[in-house]
Amino acid sequence: MGIHLKPVPIIDTAGSALASHVPTTMNKVNLSEKLALFSEHWHPHIVGELNGQHVKLAKIKGAFDWHHHAAEDELFLVVSGTMDLELRDQTVTLEEGEFFIVPRGVEHRPVAHEECHILLFEPASTRNTGNITNERTRNQLDRI
Ligand code: NI
After folding, report:
1. Is the pTM of this model over 0.85?
2. Total count of domains within the chain
């Protein structure tokens, strides 16, 4: 008896069918290859999507702006280089291979003294500058 693969309705937590859900990619992702596709600082690019979350890559250098995200926890993973994640009461230094999760509502300021490459994992609704809007705000991100 053969195996019959039938479409299975996908139900989100609110109970509605997400009939159109299709995995965005079935290809492996190489971080170095993706990072070679852009050079701008503070400009995250989407490299994966799952469960309403985005996997993003960014190159950072210098100091970003103090901000927070009211409804989203934000994961910073250093792919190469070193970054400081400044919080109001401490500074967390992240080396290559280390990550930190900034809980929603917590003010933070990423700082990189030399260029640093990071991976971000956060809900798709997360805006890079959080509660503030300025020239670095990116409302639309490129998928690469
Ligand atoms: Ni943030």
Report:
1. no
2. 1
Instruction: Compute the distance from residue 133 Cα to the ligand 1 centre, in Å.
Output: 12
Distance 98 CA to ligand 1 centre (A): 17
Tens digit of each residue's pLDDT (9 = 90 or more) over 107-116: 999 999 999 9
Query: Which residues constitute the domain of residue 95?
Result: 31-123
The 10 Å CB-count burial string (b at 16+, else e) for 39-76 is eeebbbbbbbeeeebbbbbbbbeeebbbbbbeebebeb
**Would you say residue 78 lies in a domain?**
yes
Give me the half-sphere count of Cα atoms (radius 13 Å) on the Cβ side of residue 134.
10
pLDDT of residue 140: 86
- Intervals of the chain under pLDDT 50: 1, 8, 15-20
